[in-house]
Design brief:
With 197 residues, this protein is mainly alpha-helical. It contains nine helices and no strands.
């Protein structure tokens, strides 16, 4: 297995092959980058078992979204960003579990919180839906393509035959519009981070 600081020759060619579903090229990428992200992840998780799970999860995500590799310029940065997001999600999940266990141990678990949060989340989504209906059709479509279908700015630009900057500007204006209007409603600010940012 290559060491963490070795260079993968013909890297762009390997990733291009992965983008077209080449499993042998994917194995090479996994072998090379798996050894590079492992030290980064284990420094944070301090668990070999958790680290192995996250490494596997990173490459499952990479394979599932392999068609997007055609648009990637810096492969190392792209993979490490996926790894950082997976670690962050793990830490958030771990913190929630530990908090819940502590509440149970202290007899303070409030099972009505989940119901209340679900209601607030539903209400916030309803508000966002109402606000989106006020937007011009193109802004509304761009927001839905990014948030609901997970398309990149490049993918949206090609699909709508507009520039990448136009996509970005529309999205910035839409998020600003949503923030400004949602701030008028009590209890929305925290949920806003989860839904539209």
């Amino acid at each position: 297995m290559p060491g963490p600081y070795t260079v993968l020759l013909n890297e762009r060619e390997y990733f291009a092959r992965v983008a077209h579903g080449d499993e042998s090229a994917f194995s090479e990428i996994l072998c090379h980058y798996g050894s590079r992200i492992h030290p980064f992840i284990i420094r944070i998780t301090r668990s070999e078992e958790v680290t192995e799970e996250i490494v596997q999860d990173v490459f499952v995500s990479l394979w599932k979204s392999r068609e997007k590799l055609k648009e990637v310029d810096n492969y190392s940065s792209y993979i490490f960003t996926i790894a950082a997001n997976k670690v962050f999600n793990y830490l958030k999940s771990k913190a929630r579990r530990e908090k819940h266990l502590k509440e149970l141990a202290n007899g303070k678990a409030d099972f009505t919180n989940n119901t209340q949060e679900a209601i607030e989340l539903h209400e916030t989504r309803e508000l966002i839906g109402q606000l989106l209906r006020q937007l011009p059709p193109q802004k509304k479509l761009i927001y839905k393509l990014t948030r609901e279908e997970g398309l990149s700015h490049d993918e949206i630009a090609k699909q709508l035959h507009i520039s990448k900057n136009t996509v970005k500007n529309h999205l910035v204006e839409t998020l600003k519009f949503l923030r400004e209007n949602l701030q008028r409603f009590q209890g929305v600010s925290i949920l806003l981070l989860l839904i539209i940012l």
